[in-house]
Amino acid sequence: MQPSKIVCVGRSYAAHAEELGNAVPEQPILFIKPPSSLVSHADGIRWNASLGSCHYECELVLRIDHRLSNISDAEAALSAVGAITLGLDLTLRDVQNQLKAKGLPWERAKAFDGSCVLGDWITLEQVLDLNALEYQFYVNDELRQHGDTRLLLFKLGELIAEISQCFSLEPGDLIMTGTPAGVGALSSGQQLKMVLPLKEHTAEWIVQVH
User: Fold this and answer.
1) What is the secondary structure of the chain as a DSSP string?
2) Sign of CA pseudo-dihedral 43, 185, 144, 11
3) pLDDT tens digit string along 15-67?
C-alpha cells in the first residue's frame, strides 16, 4: 500500500535536539516527505555528493491502517497503528543548515528521492509494548544510536492525535517518530544495521551505503 504522505517529527528526543544545538520544542515539529522519497533497506543509500554531507537518523516508523482526522483521544489514535518498522530519515545536513540560515523550508534537504529508507513491516502481535520499545542502529558494527520510546518528548498516542489535527491520516500513511541522539555523516562503503527486538526474535535490516 503506497502512502499518500510520510509525516516526520523533528526533535522528538531532547538529547538529539541538544546535540544539534536546537531548542527542545514545546509541541511536535512536523514536516512531510513525499512517497517518491521511499526506498527499501535492500536498495541501499545514494545521494548527490556535490550537495555535501548526508546524515543518518534512525527512527521508529508507524504505519496507519485506519483513517484519522482531528482526533483528540490518544488511545484511539494509537489503535490506528497497524504495523511498525525502523527507518532512516536521511538529511542533507549542509543543505539544511543553509536553508535554515535563510529561514527557508527544508524540503531540498529532507524530501529528496531515496531519503526515506524502510525496513520490513512488523505486525503489532510481535511487539511487546509500543510505549516501551527500544531499538539500535549500528555503523560498521559500531553502536551509534539507541532509541527508547519511553524517552520521547511526546507519547506516541498523543503524537498521532496531534498530527491528525494538522493532516488527515489515510490508510497506508507513515509516521517517522523522530531520532535519538547519535546522528552523523555517512560515507560510501559503510554498512548500516537497524535492530528491533521483538517478542520472539530480533529483526535486523542491513543497509549498504553506495
Assistant:
1) ---S-EEEEES-SHHHHHHTTPPPPSS-EEEEE-GGGEEEGGG-B---GGG--EEE-EEEEEEE-S-B-S---HHHHHTTEEEEEEEEE-EEHHHHHHHHHTT--SHHHHSSTT-EEE---EEGGG-S-GGG-EEEEEETTEEEEEEEGGG-SS-HHHHHHHHHTTSPBPTT-EEE----S--EE--TT-EEEEEEE-SSSEEEEEEEB-
2) negative
3) 665 666 667 668 888 999 999 999 999 999 999 999 999 999 999 999 999 99
User: pTM for this structure?
Assistant: 0.95
Residue with cell 513491516: 121
Structural domain tally of the chain?
Answer: 1
- Residue 66 belongs to domain with CATH number: 3.90.850.10
Rounded CA separation 157/210 (Å): 36
Q: Would 130 be classed as within a structural domain? A: yes
